[in-house]
Amino acid sequence: MRAFPVRLPSGVRYWTVVDENYAVVPEADAFLQYGRQLGRDQVELTTRTYAGHVALYLRWCARTGRDWRVAAEEFGLFLVWLKFGSKETTGIDWPARHGLVVLAGPGPAAVRQPARVGNVAAGVRQFLLHGITTKAVPSIVMAQLFEVVEDWELPVEARGEGSTGYRMRPRHRVKVPRKKSERATDREIVALFLAARNAGDRFIVLLLGRAAPGRRGGSAA
């Protein structure tokens, strides 16, 4: 399974998913065409990203003997495969002599970062949800992907009018560590101030430099 570019007679380009014989995977193609021109009007690059996500999922299913339509029941194993699977294990080229690969236990370094794994997971969920809508995927898969939780911890503004008090949340979540942002030093702020060409720009530099949370001497007032 691999992502593959397609140019329609209208000149519109999008990306689809093909198998090892370069035959289009119908369900994946329907999802990607819907995103590109039949519903969401996504840009070509977005369909390329989604095609890559779907190809990874279908590749995992094919290489582990799973039916992709119901494999979401073991979605957590897919995420582990993504996180620790080598390029040879998860890539396009897969020698026929290879059987199932047993990954090492605790301790090995991750091949893909959490943000990447999370993005792939989100793309695959969208693909399977589209399959549920078009009846290509059993409706039970919805419960395998999402759980119903109370939304009391959300701000009132985020709940919206007519909220029932419940919302859908992905069952399998990838924790992405937040990087501590580096703040500009006083010397860097002065350099930006001197480089500004007008009073308005200088004011913005001073405002952001002095009012930034956590800056010594800064104030939110």
Notes on the protein architecture:
This protein is mainly alpha-helical. The chain has two domains: 2-137, no CATH class; 182-221. It has helices at residues 26-38, 44-63, 75-84, 87-90, 114-133, 141-145, 156-159, 186-195, 199-211; strands spanning 2-7, 13-18, 146-150, 166-170. A hairpin with a 5-residue loop joins strand 1 and strand 2.
Explain the layout of strands and helices:
Blueprint: E1 2-7, E2 13-18, H1 26-38, H2 44-63, H3 75-84, H4 87-90, H5 114-133, H6 141-145, E3 146-150, H7 156-159, E4 166-170, H8 186-195, H9 199-211
Antiparallel strand pairs: 1-2, 3-4
- Anisotropy-based shape: extended
Largest β-sheet summary: 2 strands, antiparallel
Query: Distance between the terminal alpha carbons, to the nearest Å?
Result: 56 Å
Radius of gyration: 23 Å
SS field, number of helical segments: 9
Order of helices and strands: EEHHHHHHEHEHH
Strand order of the largest sheet: 1-2
Class by SSE composition = mainly alpha
Calculate the mean pLDDT score and round it.
Answer: 78
Contiguous runs where pLDDT drops below 50 for at least 5 residues: 215-221
- Give the tally of β-strands: 4
Please tell me the total number of domains: 2
Helix content: 40-55%
Strand-residue proportion: 5-15%
